[in-house]
Amino acid sequence: MFQRVRTIFFILILMFTAPAGCSSGHHVEVSQDTEAEKKGSTAKAEKKIVIYICGQVKHPGVYEFSAGDRIAAAVKAAGGFTSKASWESVNQAEKMKDGQQIYVPSEEEAKEPSSQNAAEGAGTSAGKVNINTAGREELMTLSGIGESKAEDIIAYREEHGPFSKTEDIMKIQGIKEGIYNKIKDSITI
Predict the structure, then answer these.
(1) What pLDDT, in 10s, does the model give residues 126-136?
(2) Which of 70, 105, 114, 154 has the fewest beta carbons closer than 10 A?
(3) Phi, psi at residue 97, to the nearest 5°?
């Protein structure tokens, strides 16, 4: 009889522990979710961008951000502006692009193009587009400059700094003498 009770007890233990075995099936499902999450996080990792911020920031350097982050995040990551920074010269609302260089000029540097424009602009009509400071929409008002070329102009000056003369715009791929001749009277630096 003791043997029989022991067998029944053993069967009962198996019956009550069987749901625990089912939860191991649930564990497999969690692992599958974890795999999906890993795949999702890999996709997110692919959406990372790297930028270089320099000039008048406290900690210039290379930083990693999520795609779609704004320049304000880069400024914050770099410790903020120095006291000499011309913060109004930087469009902090602009989205960053992978490989972008963000240069924060000093107040003195920011004044140089303005005083140069004033000297050049004497006796010329107002409304010229400054190719060193214009945003995408403003650049697109120029004949032959669409969204793609406007973005190329912005990317070029972010990587190489401001144009030193209006003819330098021909360094942009797709902008040659024909387009330059159409826009040369409408642009300034």
Answers:
(1) 568 889 888 88
(2) 114
(3) -120, 150
